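To the wet lab folks,

You asked to see what we're planning to order before we commit. Fair enough. Below is the target structure as C-alpha cells, and below that is the sequence we designed to fit it. If anything looks off to you, flag it before the synthesis order goes out.
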C-alpha cells in the first residue's frame, strides 16, 4: 500500500513540474528496487545511518560522481568515502545479480529522488559505464 501511495505522489509531482528527461515509470521501478536492495542500509528517506552508512539525500557525492554509481551498485564499494565532508568506512556489498536495466532504474531513482536531478542516465550510458 505504501508503494502505491508513493507512486501516486511521485507521478502527481512529476506531472506538475517540467522534467523532459525523466521517465517516471522507470523512476517508479527504481523506487521498488531501492526499497528491496538499498533501503535497509540507506533508509527509505535516504538519510543513511548516523556516521556508519552514508546518506543519499542531498549527498554531494552523487552528482560529483554520477558516472561511478552504476559500478558502485553492481560491484559494491570497499574503500572509505567522503560525503558532505564526513568519512564513511562501512563496506557496501555488491548487487551483481541486478540487470543493467535494473541498475539504470535504480540510479535514476536515486538521482531523481535524493539529488533532485532531472538529467537522468540512459540505459546505453549505464551499459557503457558498466563495461568500462
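Sequence we intend to order:
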Amino acid at each position: 500500500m505504501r508503494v502505491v501511495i508513493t507512486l501516486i505522489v511521485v507521478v502527481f509531482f512529476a506531472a506538475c513540474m517540467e522534467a523532459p528527461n525523466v521517465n517516471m515509470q522507470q523512476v517508479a521501478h527504481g523506487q521498488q528496487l531501492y526499497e528491496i536492495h538499498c533501503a535497509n542500509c540507506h533508509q527509505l528517506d535516504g538519510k543513511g545511518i548516523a556516521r556508519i552508512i552514508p546518506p543519499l539525500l542531498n549527498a554531494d557525492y552523487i552528482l560529483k560522481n554520477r558516472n561511478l554509481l552504476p559500478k558502485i551498485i553492481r560491484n559494491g564499494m570497499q574503500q572509505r568515502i567522503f560525503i558532505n565532508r564526513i568519512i564513511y568506512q562501512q563496506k557496501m556489498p555488491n548487487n551483481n545479480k541486478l540487470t543493467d536495466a535494473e541498475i539504470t532504474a535504480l540510479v535514476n531513482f536515486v538521482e531523481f529522488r535524493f539529488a533532485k536531478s532531472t538529467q537522468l542516465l540512459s540505459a546505453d550510458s549505464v551499459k557503457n559505464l558498466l563495461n568500462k
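Structural context that might help your review: The longest helix spans residues 2-16. The domain at 2-131 is CATH 1.10.760.10 (Cytochrome Bc1 Complex; Chain D, domain 2).

Thanks,
Computational group
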